Amino acid sequence: MSETTQKPILSIENVSKTYEGGYKALKNVDLTIQKGEIFALLGPNGAGKTTLISLICGLARLNEGRITVDGHDVKSEFYKARGKIGLVPQELTTDAFESVWNTVSFSRGLFGKPKDPTVIERVLKSLALYEKRDNKLRTLSGGMKRRVLIAKALAHEPEVLFLDEPTAGVDVALRREMWNVVADLRQTGVTVILTTHYIEEAEMMADRIGVISKGELILVEDKNELMRKLGHKELTIVLQEPLQAIPDNLSHYDLQLAEDRMSLTYSYDTHAERTGIATLMRLLAEDGVRFRDIVTKQSSLEEIFVGLVEDGQ
């Protein structure tokens, strides 16, 4: 079966969720995720991220729509579907006095999998935990404890791994360490779905990005394509002396004159056939506008995300 026709590892079809009291947490969500993909789900608090994960993992009741994991329906084939999923929660919920080896082995048993030391060894080695296998969890650093949570989620050899805010409340060094862990997981064929508030996390790791706001999936896009479509560059021309007004022959350019009149900012599409920069610089020179520096800035994914959520409000 070709890569383009293979069935998705996760399929979400027309899923809605209404809680008692009438609050609609999700509204007609459709999403497919392919095997081996790293998918980031972005959204503000209360947007519906946790509700969606809870429905997929069987932690909340699915009433409207259909969800399948590797072809297994989460309602009619709950145990088969759930067995395909590993879930890493935000909280460090571990038995402080248990060893790393025992706690990971126990998690495998919860899914009805037979004991298999070779699997546990492989998982621990992949997360640089094997040397700590006999350590009590209470002796581990915060970063190691988070790795143990991932090891527990991988112990039953799932196809899909959910990371719910994997680096919430951790320092920058540990955050980057976790990014490396996720990148390594991709090499093993595990599909990774993460929710995050850290825009740079999605920008660094994800292949595709979904933006959810007020229960609606307002956009799903390839990360690079999203940057291409919605991103733009700004060219700031720092002037040698104040400019009283933008010359008439430049009125068709998207130019902004700074309040101190010492710089011009030009917004342009980097993927357009022509950016117009060469002509702009020539026209400035013809008008006798002299400059001392040129600075370019590309819009970040964070700016794009904020704009999308604001548009959806």
Structure characterization notes:
This protein has 313 residues and is α/β, with parallel strands linked by helices. A hairpin with a 2-residue loop joins β4 (64-69) and β5. The longest helix has 16 residues, at 172-187. It has helices spanning 49-56, 78-83, 100-110, 117-126, 142-154, 172-187, 199-205, 223-230, 277-286, 301-312; strands at 10-18, 24-33, 38-42, 64-69, 72-73, 85-88, 160-164, 191-196, 208-213, 216-222, 233-239, 255-257, 263-268, 291-298. It is elongated and about 80 Å long. It is 32% helix and 27% strand. The protein folds into two domains: 10-228, Rossmann fold (3-Layer(aba) Sandwich); 232-298, Alpha-Beta Plaits (2-Layer Sandwich). This is ABC transporter ATP-binding protein.
Please render the helix and strand layout as text:
Blueprint: E1 10-18, E2 24-33, E3 38-42, H1 49-56, E4 64-69, E5 72-73, H2 78-83, E6 85-88, H3 100-110, H4 117-126, H5 142-154, E7 160-164, H6 172-187, E8 191-196, H7 199-205, E9 208-213, E10 216-222, H8 223-230, E11 233-239, E12 255-257, E13 263-268, H9 277-286, E14 291-298, H10 301-312
Parallel strand pairs: 3-8, 3-9, 6-7, 7-8
Antiparallel strand pairs: 1-2, 1-4, 4-5, 9-10, 11-13, 11-14, 12-13
Helix pairs in contact: 3-5
State the gist of this model.
This protein is α/β, with parallel strands linked by helices and 313 residues long.
